[in-house]
Design a protein that fits this description.
Elements: E1 4-11, H1 15-26, E2 32-35, H2 44-47, H3 79-92, E3 99-100, E4 105-111, E5 116-121, E6 126-134, E7 156-159, E8 173-177, H4 181-193, E9 196-200, E10 207-208, H5 217-225, H6 227-249, H7 252-273, H8 277-282, E11 295-296, H9 300-303, E12 309-312, E13 316-320, E14 323-326, E15 331-333, E16 336-339, E17 354-356, H10 363-369, E18 386-388, H11 400-421, E19 426-428, H12 430-444, H13 448-451, H14 476-485, E20 491-493
Parallel strand pairs: 1-2, 1-6, 2-3, 4-17, 6-18, 7-16, 8-9, 8-16, 9-12, 10-11
Antiparallel strand pairs: 4-5, 5-6, 13-14, 14-15, 19-20
Helix pairs in contact: 1-11, 5-6, 6-7, 11-14
The structure holds NADP nicotinamide-adenine-dinucleotide phosphate.
Protein name: NAD(P)/FAD-dependent oxidoreductase
InterPro entries: FAD-bind_Monooxygenase_sf
């Protein structure tokens, strides 16, 4: 039987996959399927539902530019509301019927003769498609630490991406490993009812206060009746977030004062929350603010002042069936081990599936043997008719929806040209890709990542070769302009 064929295949039904689907529909392509390994849509906002989950970008900004949501109940909305937003958008744009849930994609290879992508699914099924999109997110492959003895632990082990909604912390003796953005939200929640909580910190994180606001019924009605009002609030929240990244981080050479001011704010926050200088010292990062994504919380620091909450910053020697032996030789007896250990970004996610392009070029190998690179954060030479939405130099600022905005504009321009020429394939040229990589490398020269003290941050912004190739070093406006106006000669069309 011939493999089932679609005009386009999108891998992943998170916000990137939904956005790509909406853009395909706008371009008149209805024959597409979204392949999703989970049993529901929403990507990270479906997978993550640990207590305390909320977005750390104001939700006026954390939404599609074309789809403001008047229903947000607060400035920093909860995970549940964001998942609901994903559902609402998918339904409004009739995306859901295109999704095949519980479908693992193993890999895709370019069939040169047929000028098609052959997509292999778990279970042996094959599909074919003319256009392939991977919308697999940046933080989608959970990281489980390889700590000696962890497999022998006899209590409950839970990774934050696999949270059981009926988990009750009451009375438990819990250890949590990790102090990233997830842990910063989860730790205060666990501390509420746990009998004992030990936090294993390898690298302290910068934490600044969170200025949150409730959107009461009147504001929500206003947003609903006069959408311009919400757009005005968005303009402000967009500007604040863009300013933070575009100056202090990306133009660090000229604006390092802003960075120092942010670090001072975090210092003040620590000072106001914790009396014990030794505890404050242990929670103080020794790398620059911004090397790693900073976090926002009003309760994280104060949680460590509770008598039943302990900070263990000396390291882990091994895990035993009933507890953790610490590097200082002491043992913490626990019944529950929470892994807030984040994601494998560079190892498992670039790319998330095996992708083999023209002349057998293996994307993952090529990135590792040369450098991590992607023209406009989406295209690579030797990979025709393929857009990799989670690529090196794709992520814009602190807000994923900015990334989606320029990627949708890029799709519009690129596919418009394919149609105009009645072409079968498009492919970025090696020269355009090389020029783009040089430009990104040069732009990063002004950034905190090059000029700052980031060595001890263990930040996922840096790839294993030590290059900060995750963020696209430019403003959203610039990225959208480029995506809408790039020279069409940067691609070949056949
Ligand atoms: P993360 O930032 O990568 O943090 C993982 C934590 O686990 C780090 O503290 C890491 O320590 C620790 N860890 C990993 N392996 C370890 C080991 N073998 N031994 C000891 N410690 C270990 O992951 P995350 O907290 O899940 O957050 C990831 C990203 O998700 C965030 O940066 C943010 O972009 C996003 N996020 C957003 C929100 C939101 O919008 N509200 C919420 C949660 C997450 P090291 O630092 O030493 O490696």
């Amino acid at each position: 039987m011939a493999p089932r064929h679609h005009e386009a295949i999108i891998v992943g039904a998170g916000f990137a996959g939904i956005g790509a689907a909406i853009q395909l529909k706008r371009m008149g392509i209805e024959d597409f399927v979204i392949l999703e390994r989970e049993d529901d849509l929403g990507g990270t906002w479906y997978v993550n539902h640990y207590p305390g989950l909320a977005v750390d970008v104001p939700t006026t900004t954390y939404s599609y530019f074309f789809e403001p949501n008047p229903n947000w109940s607060r400035l920093f909305s909860t995970g549940t509301e964001i998942k609901q937003y994903a559902d609402d958008v998918a339904d409004k744009y009739d995306v859901r019927r295109h999704i095949r849930f519980n479908t693992d994609v193993e890999g895709a290879h370019w069939d040169e003769e047929a000028a098609l992508w052959r997509v292999a699914l778990g279970g042996g099924q094959q599909l074919s498609t003319r256009f392939l999109f991977t919308a697999t997110g940046f933080l989608s492959q959970p990281h489980t630490p390889d700590i000696p003895g962890i497999g022998d632990f006899e209590g409950t082990v839970v990774h934050t991406t696999d949270w059981a909604d009926d988990f009750v912390a009451d009375g438990r003796r819990i250890a949590i490993i990790g102090t990233g953005a997830t842990a910063v939200q989860l730790i205060p929640e666990l501390a509420r009812t746990a009998a004992d909580l030990t936090v294993y910190q390898r690298t302290p994180i910068w934490v600044v206060p969170k200025v949150d606001l409730k959107f009461g019924p009147r504001i929500r009605t206003l947003f609903d009746r006069i959408p311009l009002t919400q757009r005005a609030v968005r303009a402000v929240t967009d500007a604040i977030y863009a300013f933070m990244v575009d100056t202090a981080v990306l133009k660090h050479r000229y604006f390092r004062r802003f960075n120092i001011a942010a670090a001072d704010l975090a210092k003040l926050h620590r000072f106001a929350s914790i009396r014990d200088p030794e505890l404050r010292r242990k929670l103080t990062p020794d790398y620059d603010f911004g090397c790693k994504r900073p976090t926002f919380s009003n309760s994280y620091y104060r949680t460590f002042t509770k008598p039943h909450v302990h900070l263990q910053a000396d390291g882990i020697e091994r895990v035993e069936p009933d507890g953790i032996v610490n590097a200082d030789g002491s043992k913490t007896v626990i019944d529950t081990l929470v892994l807030a250990t984040g994601f494998d970004l560079w190892e498992a996610n670039f790319p998330a599936i095996e992708v083999i392009g023209r002349e057998g070029r293996n994307l993952g190998k090529w990135w590792r043997e040369t450098r991590f690179q992607a023209y406009q954060g989406v295209s690579m030479p030797y990979f025709p008719n393929y857009l990799s939405l989670a690529s090196p130099y794709a992520f814009l600022g602190l807000n994923f929806f900015n990334t989606m905005e320029y990627q949708m504009h890029l799709m519009d321009r690129l596919f418009g040209e394919v149609r105009r020429r009645n072409a079968t394939t498009f492919e970025v040229t090696e020269q355009a890709n090389a020029r783009y990589l040089d430009r990104m490398t040069e732009a990063l020269g002004d950034s905190l990542f090059t000029l700052g003290n980031c060595a001890s941050a263990r930040s996922y912004y840096f790839n294993p070769a030590g290059e900060a190739t995750l963020l696209r070093p430019m403003t959203t406006r610039r990225a959208v302009t480029e995506a809408s106006q790039f020279p069409l000669s940067d691609y070949t069309f056949a």
